[in-house]
Amino acid sequence: MKQKGREAIMYVAHPTRMRQESEALCDFVWKKGYAPVNPFMCGEYRHFEGGIISREASLEFCLNIQKGCGITGVFGISEGVLGEIQDRLKWDPQKNFRFFYGFDSQWDSEYEKLKEKYGDILSQFRKHQLVVLVGPRAAGKTHLINGITGGTWADLYNIRRVRNTTTRKPRDDEDKKSYNFISQSEFLEGIDNDEFLEHDEYAGNFYGCSWPEIRRVLRNSDGIFAITPAGARALYEYRFELNPFFVVLKPASDEVLLKNLRKRGDNEQTIAHCLATAKDFVLLPEIPHQVLEMTGTDKDFEAFQYLLNYKSDTHYGFNFREILRNAEKREYC
Prior knowledge:
Blueprint: E1 9-13, H1 22-31, E2 35-37, H2 55-66, E3 71-74, H3 79-91, E4 97-99, H4 107-118, E5 130-134, H5 141-149, H6 152-157, E6 159-161, E7 164-166, E8 179-181, H7 184-192, E9 196-202, E10 205-210, H8 211-218, E11 222-226, H9 229-236, E12 244-251, H10 254-264, H11 268-277, E13 289-294, H12 299-309, H13 320-330
Parallel strand pairs: 1-2, 1-3, 3-4, 5-11, 5-12, 6-11, 7-8, 12-13
Antiparallel strand pairs: 7-10, 9-10
């Protein structure tokens, strides 16, 4: 749904070096459904930094403007932007931010440089982990998610399912655990409001991964869900504010996949399509990930638990080397 009132106002945070792009950024924000407030357009720049107002007073002015905005959009990294992020984190427990990485070519280098001085400020957005499963239809994604989020396992790992959104009708009550069901008009409005990390149409129905749903789950626990390779690539771009752990599920053989597809009751045309496209469910090497070979047996869930049991003590992810060493011993991966 479209934001209303104060929640519809986005503070546009970006470095001084990007001030020539202020108008373009405001147009972008407006198209996303928000009313933009850009501090570089609230007065003559020559009067602010380096002028009669001074940088210190300019920063105080910006922080006061931000407090009147329902959300802060971050479009680049600088010392001033990190100060704005730190300020909002002090008084906004809901962490109402949106991060847009495609506008600042110096984002990575500037953040690494400033991290040495101010610490990893964006780590405050990564307190909970998002386990991301990538695999073809009938590879076993739902089986693993149901197992790890059901009963005592959910409390043991403090992990909750991130439900995808669809316009199709629910098959049964069990289906409602995996999806949020909405109308086509609601889905299209969500697309207009940029509420989906990714979305697709299949067999006349829409499917999407909802940002509000991801943030709802990660607010109080780890999350787990399944996504396409394209969605995983998009999600990786948000690694500064999220803490994703990618697991590619690879069927041990076509026979394993064929058995699972027939168990689901898929017709021969769907089965042929799934077998032909299964090889496309891979991730590029630059996206850190683990590959879990799926055998269609109880060993699959045991191997998956093995991955989750070896989380490291930091928010950056798992102890990959230890996982592989033990997995090789048990011949699960």
